[in-house]
Each structure stands twice: as C-alpha cells, then as structure tokens.
Amino acid sequence: MSAPPAPPLLLASTSPQRRAILAQLGIPFELVEPRYEERGDDPVEHAAGKARSVAADAAGDDRPVLGVDTVVVCGGLVLGKPAGAGEAEEMLETLGGRTHEVVSGLCLHTPGWEELRRETTRVEFRPLTPRDLAAYVATGEWEGRAGAYAIQGRGGGLVRRIEGDYLNVVGLPAAALVELLATLFPGVYGFG
Asked: How far is Cα 159 from Cα 98, in angstroms, rounded to an integer?
C-alpha cells in the first residue's frame, strides 16, 4: 500500500533558484508570490514576513508555507541585490580575495506553529582582477542576486573555497529545510 502524496508546500517566493532546488529534492510545492516589503537586513525576519503574508492570504489552507531570504555579509557590510552594473562591480571587488558569509533565513509556517532557522555558509573568493570583474559583470548573471554573483553559474569561477551548505549559496538552505521536514513531517516529504 502506498502513502498518499505529500501536500505541496506553499513557497512564498518568486525565485527560480528556490523552485529548482525544491524540484531537485523532490519536494512538492506551489508558488505563491508574497506581499511583504523588506525593511532592514535580517533574513530571518524577511523569511518570516514572506511566509506570514502568504499564510494570511491562504487562510483556511493548512499546508505549510515556506519563506526564505538570503543576504551576503562581508566584513560587517551587508550586500543585497545590486541596483546596476556599477554597484555589482563594487560588490564583487569587495568580495575579491576575501571570505564572506551567505546568511539565509528560513521560516516554515502553519496555522498552529512556526519554525525559524538561520543558516550560514562561508565562501572564499579568489583575488579578482579588473578583467575578471568586467568579464563577470558583462554576463549580467549578477542581476537579482545578493552579493552580485551566482555560484551555480559563471560565478562559480570566482570561488576558491566553500564551507557549509552549497545550496544555501544558490538560494535555499536545503539541509535546514530537510531537517525540519524530517522532524515535523516524518516520511510525508520523503525524509525522516
């Protein structure tokens, strides 16, 4: 006898990376655009705000809502999504030859409870030359990316070393999510 299908998570995000990671892990989900305005730099607060906004719009729906937000921190400076190519180049120049942290907030929310997690992955960039910076910025891959790079694309060539959850750098702290699903929904989503 087979188990009933898992109820899809409500993903409070429009990120293609987050969708791809959930699909890769075999976790069913439905995309719901959050109605939440980010203020400040706390990714856990933003993840919770996104999840709560979707939960409020889906009142009466008992399915878990997943909210995620990610920032890049280097030397105490929080690097969000660059507004343009010049700002992207400045961010990448800041990261060049240094170690930074990719910090994600994760919120799993249901009508009865809410779980919050913070996941940090350390990423070391190789030293970057002006040619490296110009070539990478010209790709446009930096657009819409915290810290102005995509590790899963050409941005992977900027990286010397990584310590922690690789998928966290891509856009979703997968290890933390799988742990939560295994603990709170054993067997339902294929974990635990």
From this structure: 10
> pTM, whole model, 2 decimals?
0.93
The model's pLDDT over 153-189, given as tens digits with 9 standing for 90+, comes to 999 999 999 999 999 999 999 999 999 999 999 999 9
The predicted-structure confidence for 10-44, as pLDDT tens digits, reads as follows 999 999 999 999 999 999 999 999 999 989 999 99
- Neighbouring CB atoms inside 10 A of 173's CB total 30
Point out the residues that are catalytic: 69
Strands (DSSP E) found in the chain: 9-11, 29-31, 65-74, 77-79, 99-109, 114-125, 159-163
Distance CA 172, CA 146 (A): 13
